[in-house]
Amino acid sequence: MVTSTVVAPVTPADQTRGAEVSTPRRRAVTWLGLVPFGVYVVLFLAVPAVLAIASGFFDGSGAFTLANFAAYTNPTILQNFFASIWISALTAALGAVFGAIICFALLGTRPDRMLRSAVDSASSVLAQFGGVMLAFAFIATIGAQGVLTKWLVSIGFTANVFNNFNGSGPLLYQIPGLVIPYLYFQIPLMVLTFMPAMEGLKSTWAEANATLGGTRFTYWTRIGMPILAPAFFGSLILLFANAFSSYATAAALISQGGIVPLAIRQQLTSETIVGVANVAGVLALGMVVVMIVLMTAYSALQRRASRWRR
Questions:
Q1: Are the C-beta atoms of 68 and 279 separated by less than 8 Å?
Q2: CA angle, 307 as apex, 303 and 310 as ends, to 5°?
Q3: CA 20 to 30 Å from 247, out of 80, 85, 97, 127?
Q4: Cα–Cα distance for residue pair 258/163, rounded to 1 Å
């Protein structure tokens, strides 16, 4: 006797049974959880940014004016923007390249091993290691009286690059010298942002490439790099924005202006030129415009990169 088992068809009600049903009340509760973050963003980001920018449209007596925008015709201000852009671009490019190389090397390790955990933990800490602490660390190392600088002098390099760069004194206290401390937090930030994209490369893609006779070079040039390109350039933009808005480390090393954040401080605290405090608001507006452009491009690249992670 032949027996058969009849499987009842799955109805739509069975498919949704057990799954969470999205109701207006549940959606309201979900959005309610974002309220603390929204309040934080409004109080500590939106309100200060609006007040800083709005100050650029008023003069010292509180009257509306556009005269503060004349600062953008000042060669010194333009030079500060140029210096901020080139140092941000240089540190972002170097940080992206070295960070990507580290991510590539980490692909050969297992995520649950100690090496990967140590690199992830160190990157998380070092990416946030800035300000006075970082400045002091480099002053003690490559400053005018730093350990490395004095050692180079002791072995005969009395005019090494650290104590006399370009005939203008110690390298660390000049704008080009910011490249070294900036890389200290740019490279770990690249590891944090780019590693998830590297881990998203599926082994089946490499197997398909090998099955079709492709080489390792073919895999990276026709599969790996095109897939990783949006994530790489998105991380590059994030690094640029990170360096462009950095203030504390530069302020601890350089007393005068030279980049836009230091120029804003100079406008706010100047005791020799009275009535230029509102110019800082105009400069802040310029920085906000640059950041909006960068974040828009970053969001677009992130959306494109996320398609391969589904």
A1: yes
A2: 125
A3: 97
A4: 20
Three-class DSSP category at 146: coil
Q: Check: CB of residue 230 under 8 Å from CB of residue 305.
A: yes
**Beta pairing partners, 58:** 64
Give bridge partners of residue 64 from the DSSP assignment: 58
Per-residue model confidence as pLDDT tens for the chain (310 residues): 434 444 444 444 444 454 456 677 777 877 888 889 899 999 988 898 888 888 888 887 878 888 888 888 889 899 999 999 999 999 999 999 999 999 999 988 887 888 888 998 999 999 888 888 999 999 999 998 899 999 999 998 878 888 888 888 889 999 999 999 999 999 999 999 999 988 888 889 899 999 999 898 999 999 999 889 988 999 999 999 999 989 999 999 988 778 999 988 888 887 666 566 788 888 888 888 898 898 898 888 878 777 766 6
pTM above 0.70, yes or no: yes
Q: In this structure, are residues 92 and 100 in contact, taking their beta carbons and an 8 Å threshold? A: no
Closest listed residue to residue 129, CA positions, set 182, 73, 176: 182
- H or E segment to which residue 212 belongs: none
Q: 3-state class of 132 per DSSP? A: helix
